[in-house]
Amino acid sequence: MEYKSTRGNIRLTSTKALIEGLADDGGLFIPIKFPKVELNFKELMNKSYNELAFYILKNYFNDFDENTLFNCITKAYDDKFDIKEIAPLVKKDKFYFLELFHGPTLAFKDMALSLFPYLLKEAKLKENIKKEIVILTATSGDTGKAALEAFRDIEGIKIIVFYPSKGVSNIQRLQMTTQEGENTFVFGINGNFDDAQRAVKEIFADVHFNEEIDKRGYVLSSANSINIGRLLPQIVYYFYAYLKLLKMGEISEGEYVNIVVPTGNFGNILAAYYAKKMGLKVNKLICASNTNNVLYDFLRSGVYDIRRNFYTTISPSMDILVSSNLERFLYDACGEDEDIIRALMRDLKEFGCFKLSEKYMDSLKDFYANFADDKETCSEIRWAFLNLRYLIDPHTAVALNVYKKYLKDTDDDTKTIIASTASPYKFVASVYKAITLKEPYGDEFMLADELSKLTKTSIPKQIVELNNKRVLHNKVIDKGEIYDVIKDILKGD
Ligand SMILES: N[C@@H](CCOP(=O)(O)O)C(=O)O
């Protein structure tokens, strides 16, 4: 399998694409063709998560030998997940929640980031790269911690994370600022996720800077979903959930399902779209946004316009206006025409907006989009707890709210998988307030105790342990200082 850039004719093997992260022309790597997998349901239904991951991913990473890939997968999905199933599908009334937060950092990012370091290590070996890999990561809360945990103390790799200092939950911040590991660097920025991601992309594109650090023995890579090593492993769990529905007797072979995804950087929903391209029977992809509803507008009108307020919400991981992975979808939607993508991305950079030509509007029909504001998100957390006896985090609540809007708009009774992307305990203050209708008091750990008693759910051990950890990274920088900070870390040590 080869990978090519959405903006040009660069073609690479998967191992090279994994290391480079972002293409030199600023584009994102995509597989040159999507493998169709044979869906022998009887056989697949009984596969473990690992076996299914291997079955799907060997199509994308076929320049790894099969034993190596299988070993990487086995090491990734082990007892660092708190449940053997890895990604359980939980039925509550008529709702099916795909719980993707059972990994070490309690968010869906663990699903790919548990595997990605192993793939990167093998890719480095295969490409005979002796240089140290420096992973640059922009985060709105969850990717940062998952990447730090995944890469900590891995020889030959440094990881540098930038998060919006005023745009993450207290638990998310503590998870990152207490990170151990000699090779980890964490910075809050005075700015938002888009500022961090823009700076990281500019650094990737700076030829002079890259030549300079090359001489010092470094090469840059990314742990965001712009990297195929982050994106492709996310396809697996949509197949897994479908097979689980079959096994539970909720659907029959070949029946269509909908998938709802709370969406920020468009990676998780794109993985579902790719699953559909591979042959999974998906009817609608339901894109759920918070008040930063740029994707809702785009999927309804074809106009993507980031000239608007940036809101800090109670679902901070989705506080994003520039959704990187939309470029991969656009590439597909516009008949794989790199010229069109270059023009759209130029418009976005120069004018802050672009418009999809009328002739490609049909491609948006795979999607339904809507959004929930903070008030609706709170009500949904409360509703789910009171009516389903199920505790959900604000991002999952956005998804549930949008799914209800979809039901109202369409009356579609297709069985629907809701991606449940984070543990409610990562957003304990918002969840506490939503359920009790009281202002949160004290610190996050007292609130977690209260919430646990109130809801009879247990506090994940990662949160309990966090209380005793020392803050090791307390620097907050201006968004304009990101370059200098990276230079400083890499200056010939
Ligand atoms: N929601 C993310 C933002 C970055 O998205 P990614 O999937 O591209 O890493 C976060 O929590 O950081």
From TrEMBL:
It catalyses: O-phospho-L-homoserine + H2O = L-threonine + phosphate. The modification N6-(pyridoxal phosphate)lysine is found at K109. InterPro entries: Ser/Thr_deHydtase_PyrdxlP-BS (IPR000634), Thr_synth_N (IPR029144), Thr_synth_N_sf (IPR037158), Thr_synthase-like (IPR004450), TrpB-like_PALP (IPR001926), TrpB-like_PALP_sf (IPR036052). GO terms for molecular function: pyridoxal phosphate binding; threonine synthase activity. The keyword Ligase does not apply. GO terms for biological process: threonine biosynthetic process. Its cofactor is pyridoxal 5'-phosphate. SUPFAM superfamilies: Tryptophan synthase beta subunit-like PLP-dependent enzymes. Pathway: Amino-acid biosynthesis; L-threonine biosynthesis; L-threonine from L-aspartate: step 5/5. Residues 89-413 form the Tryptophan synthase beta chain-like PALP domain. Its EC number is 4.2.3.1. GO terms for cellular component: cytoplasm. Keywords: Amino-acid biosynthesis, Lyase, Pyridoxal phosphate, Threonine biosynthesis. Residues 2-77 form the Threonine synthase N-terminal domain. It comes from the Bacteria. Catalyzes the gamma-elimination of phosphate from L-phosphohomoserine and the beta-addition of water to produce L-threonine. NCBIfam families: thrC. Belongs to the threonine synthase family. This is Threonine synthase. It comes from Caloramator australicus RC3.
